[in-house]
Amino acid sequence: LYTRGTVTAFSPFDARADAEALRKAMKGIGTDEETVLKILTSRNNAQRQEIASAFKTLFGRDLVDDLKSELTGKFETLMVSLMRPTYIFDAHALKHAIKGAGTNEKVLTEILASRTPAEVRNIKQVYLQEYEANLEDKITGETSGYFQRLLVVLLQANRDPDGRVDEGLVEQDAQVLFRAGELKWGTDEEKFITILGTRSVSHLRRVFDKYMTISGFQIEETIDRETSGDLEKLLLAVVKCIRSVPAYFAETLYYSMKGAGTDDDTLIRVMVSRSEIDLLDIRKEFRKNFAKSLHHMIQVKLVFCCQGKQG
C-alpha cells in the first residue's frame, strides 16, 4: 500500500551484531550516541524489534529501558519512539493525548483526520488489546460539543469507499454545505460533520471543486469564517487530508518548526510515524509548498536548539 517511506529494511542485517554494538555503546561511563543514532535510524521498525529481542536474549536486559536510562531529552524521546512497534504507535500516542490533566486535541486531530478507515479500525482494536479500554469512550470522556461529535464520526471508520463519483450527489452536497455555512445566519455544523466525515475521498474532492464554483470560496475559507476552536482545526485537518495527506503532514511539520521554538513532540511523532509510509511524498510537498527543504529546516532547527542549550 505504502512504498514512499524514507526508511526501508537494512541489508545485510544482523540483529545480534546490532544488539552487541548497542550494548557496547551504552555500557560503562558515557554513551556513544552516534552509534545508537546510526543503528536505530538506518533499520526499519521490524528490524528494530528483532534487535530488541536479540538484546534481551544476549544480555537479559531491555533495550528500551537501557535507552531511557542512558539518553536524555529529545534524543531519548526520538530513540524510544523509533523503538515503539509500528502497530501500537498511534494507539500509544492517543492514550497519552487523553491521559492526565488536559487533553492534547492536536494529537487527536492529527491522527484521526489523517488515518484511513482501515487504520482507524486497527487503532481501536490495538487500544482495546493493549490498554483494556474502549478508545471511543476515553475520547468522549475528555472532549465535548461538535468537536467530540466529529471525532466520534471519524472513529466509526465508515467513510464511503472510493468508487464512481455521482455528479448529482456532488452538486447536492456542495449546495448543502453552502446553505449550512455562507448562506445561513449561524452555521449548521452537523451538515459539515456528516458530509466531511462520511463521504468518499474522490467524492469530496469533487465537492470542494463544485463548492468553489457555487460560492466563490474555497471550503477552507468558509470553515475558517464559520467555525472556531478545536472544531475548526479538526474540520480543516479533515479537508486537507482529503485533498492530500502528504501535503497535510508537510504543513504540520512546517508549523512545528516555524518561529522561535520547535514543537518537538509533533516533529518527532510525524517523522517517526510517516518514515516508512510517505515521508518521500511529504518531503516533495514541503519543498513545493514552502520553497525549503525539510531536511535543511530540521538541520537549522537542531543546530539552533543545540546552540541555545550551550549558550
UniProtKB/TrEMBL annotation:
<dbReference type="InterPro" id="IPR001464">
    <property type="entry name" value="Annexin"/>
</dbReference>
<keyword id="KW-0106">Calcium</keyword>
<protein>
    <recommendedName>
        <fullName>Annexin</fullName>
    </recommendedName>
</protein>
<dbReference type="GO" id="GO:0012506">
    <property type="term" value="C:vesicle membrane"/>
</dbReference>
<dbReference type="GO" id="GO:0005634">
    <property type="term" value="C:nucleus"/>
</dbReference>
<dbReference type="Pfam" id="PF00191">
    <property type="entry name" value="Annexin"/>
</dbReference>
<dbReference type="GO" id="GO:0050819">
    <property type="term" value="P:negative regulation of coagulation"/>
</dbReference>
<dbReference type="GO" id="GO:0005262">
    <property type="term" value="F:calcium channel activity"/>
</dbReference>
<dbReference type="InterPro" id="IPR002392">
    <property type="entry name" value="ANX5"/>
</dbReference>
<dbReference type="GO" id="GO:0005544">
    <property type="term" value="F:calcium-dependent phospholipid binding"/>
</dbReference>
<dbReference type="GO" id="GO:0034704">
    <property type="term" value="C:calcium channel complex"/>
</dbReference>
<dbReference type="InterPro" id="IPR018252">
    <property type="entry name" value="Annexin_repeat_CS"/>
</dbReference>
<dbReference type="GO" id="GO:0001786">
    <property type="term" value="F:phosphatidylserine binding"/>
</dbReference>
<dbReference type="GO" id="GO:0005509">
    <property type="term" value="F:calcium ion binding"/>
</dbReference>
<dbReference type="InterPro" id="IPR037104">
    <property type="entry name" value="Annexin_sf"/>
</dbReference>
<dbReference type="GO" id="GO:0055074">
    <property type="term" value="P:calcium ion homeostasis"/>
</dbReference>
<dbReference type="GO" id="GO:0005886">
    <property type="term" value="C:plasma membrane"/>
</dbReference>
<keyword id="KW-0677">Repeat</keyword>
<keyword id="KW-0111">Calcium/phospholipid-binding</keyword>
<keyword id="KW-0041">Annexin</keyword>
<comment type="similarity">
    <text>Belongs to the annexin family.</text>
</comment>
<dbReference type="InterPro" id="IPR018502">
    <property type="entry name" value="Annexin_repeat"/>
</dbReference>
<dbReference type="GO" id="GO:0005737">
    <property type="term" value="C:cytoplasm"/>
</dbReference>
